[in-house]
Automatic annotation (TrEMBL):
Keywords: Oxidoreductase. The lineage of its organism: Bacteria, Pseudomonadati, Pseudomonadota, Alphaproteobacteria, Hyphomicrobiales. Residues 17-330 form the Enoyl reductase (ER) domain. InterPro entries: ADH-like_C, ADH_N_2, ER, GroES-like_sf, MDR_fam, NAD(P)-bd_dom_sf. CDD domains: PGDH (cd05288). It comes from the Bacteria. The keyword Acyltransferase does not apply. Signal peptide: none annotated. GO terms for molecular function: oxidoreductase activity. This is NADPH-dependent curcumin reductase CurA. Its EC number is 1.3.1.-. It comes from Phyllobacterium ifriqiyense. The keyword Cell division does not apply.
Amino acid sequence: NTRIVLASRPEGRVKPGNFRIEEAAIPTPRDGEVLLKILYLSLDPYMRGRMDDAKSYAAPVAIDAVMEGGTVAEVIESRHPGYKNGDFVLSHSGWQSYAISDGGGLRKLDPEVAPLSTAVGILGMPGFTAYTGLLTIGQPKPGETVVVAAASGPVGSTVGQIARLKGARAIGIAGGPEKCAFIRDELGFDAAIDHHSPDFSEQLKLACPDGIDVYFENVGGAVWDAVFPLLNTFARIPVCGLIAQYDGLDTSGKDRLPHLMRDVLKKSLLIRGFIQREFVDQRPAFTEDMGKWLQSGEVKYREDIVEGLANAPEAFMGLLQGHNFGKLVIHVTD
Ligand code: NDP
């Protein structure tokens, strides 16, 4: 069993030495358990938070423990009445090639319905995050302007496409011309702005002549600074993520709070953070709507699949710097 464990807590940027790769015996299931062979491992920005020993909405990964993560797995030895060998499941088994489960938290997957990897992407946690955050908090109306960054990733790309399905204009912010072309030409965003451009703020302003009604916050930092002056009265801001801050790199030293509070008051802004699992009661609606949109081609998705568990640390460090192009997934084995 190959396992990747947290060797040390990062100081600032994550480094290869924060991870350690280990070999261990393949575990044996007891009565009531299944042995899982991991096929796909999802890599997600939240994992950066789990590497720190800071109070958050979830406990940190302990030093020397296997890195946490969502996985798609095959049951290869079942001693559990609810599962048989050959079943495919969504599990939370982490960065390893085999795992034991007592069935808690497993969800069966049907490979005939959708490619298995989508269970950690468009049909899984990131797709659900976009759907619930945008529709519950953002509430885009026809003709309104919705802005989202990290717009070629699984959350942002879905936010923009759903915004358009609701009749809003979708403006995506992404890193580099290739990602911008993709969201505009393949996904149908109304405009795409490269946040690496020297005149990024100016371009964003030109793309939003009527201001911004919904800003789906994935990033923070310099992107927020460009968005903030363009917010309209009664704008809604679902705060989903702040990836620019995860790796400890916001050295601008800016105090944004006085301006923010002034405008919250003056413009009646609604700013609400959320963690997707708060909206668990919306799962059936999400599954139905997203299934329909995928089938009709109204929503498209892109995956960035990296071969081999040993490449997970490097791929994860790249994710925090925008090297991924689409939902980042490790293909562990067939
Ligand atoms: P992505 O696959 O989109 O990867 C993150 C992307 O963020 C990178 O590819 C990069 O894209 C962009 N990025 C990184 N640093 C910066 C920066 N300094 N400025 C601007 N963009 C940056 O990730 P996800 O779609 O999985 O996640 C998007 C956000 O949603 C994250 O903040 C994540 O934490 C959050 N999230 C929150 C959840 C919740 O329940 N609240 C659940 C799931 C995700 P580019 O090259 O385009 O800049």
